[in-house]
Amino acid sequence: MSRQEAFSTSRRGVPRFVIGGYVIAAIYALAILIPFYFVFISGFKDNPEIFGSMPLALPSQLNFDKFALAFERADMLNAMWSSLRLVVGAELLTLVLSYPAAYAIARIPIWVARWIELLFAMGLLVPIFALILPVFLLSVQLNMLYDPTYLVIFYAASRLSLSIVLLASNMRDIPIELEEAAMIDGANRLRIIYHIILPLTRSGMVTIIILNFIHFWNEYLFALILLPSDERTLQLALPLLRSERLIDYGLVAAGVVITVIPLYILFITFQERIVTGMLSGSVKS
Amino acid sequence: MGVMPRTQTTETTRPIKHLNKRVLTNWLSFFVFSGPALIVFAIFMLYPLANMFHVSTLDWEGLIKPSVNIGLANYEKLFTHDRHFSTALLNTAIQIAIALPGTIFPAFILGFFLSLRWPGYRILRTVYFSPVMLAAPGVSMLFLGLYLPDGIINFLLRQFGLESLTHVWLADVNTSLLAVTAVEIWAGIGFYTVLFFGVLSNIPREIYEAALMEGANLWEILWKIVFPMTLDFFGVVLMLHYMWLLLGAAQNVLLLTQGGPGDSSLTLGFYLYKQAFQIRDLGYSQAIGVFIFFVGLAGMLVIRLATHRKY
Asked: In the Cβ-directed half-sphere of A221, how many Cα atoms lie within 13 Å?
């Protein structure tokens, strides 16, 4: 497991790295903080104030007008609701599809299982964005053009590979003796899953849920292509705040802030889990 | 796996009738459990993938228009007559050459730095992960404020007396590609830093101790010990980001410059999108897609060969 203490800084060969390291770290940190700060305060300002002589100064007043306008112009409340519905639907479908499949791959001893596992693992290499047109064509063929349900199914399909690979590896870590004991006692697979596998894969499931949530919530291109204009997600709504002629940057900035807050709250709460989750996904695949 | 021998032993001591039933149940269970996932995967991922190849052989200019099979004519046009394509190819090559090492190497260094868990690492980690919270639209809108003629970047340049370096970043033929590439780098370093942080945290500290005692400094340790140790994972990360740059990066082009001005920021990924959804030459766009697919495969192979080690 990861070391919890700080690596000593006083040994020979370390101090120069400490200084150099902090300098580089600080540069990139500033490169992130300054723009974020700028966007955040601009939401309270008008264009003249933003692009005037002191764009980095704190706002002269806490004017929430732009935020209110953003909600109105881009219909953000409905957009958030659309995003939520899509994401929850996709999450549920992904879990329902990938969980049993992961179990089958991890625990059912037939030779086909290895090949199916390979199939899903190969799926991780498929460049999803290249499929943007064929996926669109499929929606037409299935008579589901601009039907949000299609997007939900596609989202789930696109995450099957990762979810199955992660869950299967999670399940393999469960000591097989537990299941064998249950089988000797006469339990069938379903009972084993319910009583043994399910509780012990809780951690893996939460990881998948969080990773997929971030992915679905942030997804842009496919939502852009596959949703009708009256069913926008939050990501699709944001660019609406930018008009062709004169960009009201305060408005745009307010919109960006609004978009970021849900995920930020999620991340702060689940920081450790997200990092470990990303890790096991990449290492195992 | 300790399972196989056990069940086989039990099976062979049972009557043949039970052996068949057990195996049959296994097969049945397997496909009942994995069937739905397989079906959805096949229909929504594999079929479109195959269809991409098929459509690339068609002359198809809009959904309501009929399509005609023209064999490899799309490819011929792509490689011989298309100026946009050669520009896109060059632009994409430049973008990847800059963004791939420009993102992954700094992320590796920063990830290592964080893994040492010196004071402030937790805050830094949160800060670095922030761009991940912003999706493509958010990042693009944010950068608008930086790239506008009166935006933050030009403002800072003026503050430091570098007025001559100011540009209209997104609308200048010379800087549009770099501007879009910078966005990718900015957004990408954070994510991979946290990823490397996780992996590098698992390296036993004794290795560093031992190396320090032999007179190495941390920078040498990073490149002569840590890097070779994690080369495999490094390669995986390179592959992932390479594929992203080839295709996913098109989103930022779409949101910031639409490939312009002219073709100065046209990338292969965006060109595919443009042909499919703006110009509506469906068959042609898929030829581009197939090309990108093979470029992706080739690139991943090269990276894998360079970094994968079998022990």
From this structure: 24
| Closest Cβ opposite residue A176 in set B3, B44, B186 | B3
What DSSP string runs through B233-272? HHHHHHHHHHHIIIIITHHHHHHHTTT-STTTT--HHHHH
Q: What averages of pLDDT result for each successive group of 10 residues across chain A (285 residues)?
A: 64 77 92 92 84 80 87 89 95 96 91 92 87 94 93 96 91 86 82 83 87 92 92 90 81 90 82 68 46
Q: Is the dihedral of CA A32, A34, A38, A40 positive or negative?
A: positive
Nearest to B264 by CA among B86, B96, B87, B81: B87
d(CA B5, CA B305): 36
Interface pTM, i.e. ipTM:
0.86
Number of A/B CB contacts below 8 angstroms equals 302
- pTM score of the predicted model: 0.86
Phi, psi of B116 (to 5 degrees): -80, -10
Distance CA B236, CA B105 (A): 13
- Distance from the A276 Cα atom to the nearest Cα atom in chain B, whole angstroms: 7
Q: How far apart are CA B79 and CA B72, in angstroms?
A: 11
Amino acid letter, B275: Q
Task: Round to whole Å and give the CA distance between A257 and A57.
Answer: 18
> Quick check: A218 and B296 CB within 8 A?
no
Backbone angles phi, psi at B68, to 5 degrees: -125, 135
Q: Which two tokens stand for residue B24?
A: 């049959």
Query: Is the confidence at residue B75, as pLDDT, over 60?
Result: yes
**Dihedral angle at the C-alpha atoms of A214, A216, A222, A228, nearest 10 degrees?**
-130
Instruction: Flag the least confident range among A156-165, B4-13, B257-266.
Output: B4-13
Predicted local confidence at residue B6, as pLDDT: 47
Please state, in angstroms and rounded to a whole number, the distance separating the CA atoms of residues A32 and A242.
22
**What pLDDT does residue A2 have?**
43
